[in-house]
Amino acid sequence: MVAVRIYSFQEEHLDIPTHLKTTIPTELRDAFYRARFIAGRTFRGLEYLEISQANRYQAMCPCTNINYYRHQTSVLRLFSWHHDYHWRDPTLAPTEKLDPAILCFHIDQSAYQSYQAIFAKHREAFMSGLFLAWDNAKRAMEAIAAKVRLSEIERRMWNQFWHISFLGEMQKWESRALALSLPSWEEIIDELYDAILECVEGADDMLANATRGIANTGGLL
Q1: 8 Å CB contact between 107 and 189
Q2: Are 110 and 58 in contact (CB under 8 A)?
Q3: How many other C-beta atoms can be found within 10 angstroms of the C-beta atom of residue 188?
Q4: Which of 14, 39, 116, 162 is the most exposed place for a label (fewest CB within 10 A)?
């Protein structure tokens, strides 16, 4: 599995500031905590989708294939490799590349297409379910904020917290949810080849010896 995005949130932006919490109406405070609960549930749903997307290279091999476990191990080795060279420390020796003898990729277009269909179904369920619920919760929150009585200072502080602090943190994962997708078969083939070229010793020979027609249907690498 390739790396899953790690989100970093500023904790102080995820709760109503203490000085504001004690002065705003209970209705507004309760509405915020309902919205925050729905946001958390939606974020966890997104994490599930991201884990599924991160498994895209494993999904190129059908689980019924005799080479399935070798393919899984090879993907993990390939995407766990990284070179140690850094321009600030040019004396650091480069990491030894992977031996092609320990790798075996079996890719099958029909297996990947099945995975794409399942992913699309789950993403649609997420967008029309959890994500829509979060969007509705935001609208409800803002409708309540607009009608409750707040002093000018309280409203300014509330708007700063809600629109800038809290929703600013939510935007970190909302934008990801809207953009989350899978590469096409041709694109993921190119991504896999590029990773092999970067990480595997003698990758040119390995790819040159790949089964003919692999980019169109499937086969062993």
Answers
A1: yes
A2: no
A3: 19
A4: 14
pLDDT of residue 92: 59
Question: Of 96, 78, 64, nearest to 1 (Cα)?
Answer: 78
Q: How confident is the model at residue 215 (pLDDT cuts 50, 70, 90)?
A: very low
At residue 89, φ and ψ (nearest 5 deg) are: -140, 70
Q: Which amino acid is at 27?
A: E
d(CA 133, CA 102): 47
Domain boundaries, the chain: 14-79+97-214
Report whether 42 contacts 133 (CB < 8 A): yes
- Which tokens is 135 given? 């969007």
Distance separating the N- and C-terminal Cα atoms of the chain: 18
Closest CA to 82 of 207, 220, 219, 195: 195
Name residues whose C-beta falls within 8 Å of residue 115's C-beta, 6 or more positions apart in sequence.
56, 59, 182
CA distance 169 to 210: 46
Predicted pLDDT of residue 153: 95
Q: Where do we find the tokens 């509330």? A: 158
Cα–Cα distance for residue pair 194/24, rounded to 1 Å: 55
- The answer to whether 53 and 182 have CB atoms below 8 angstroms apart is yes
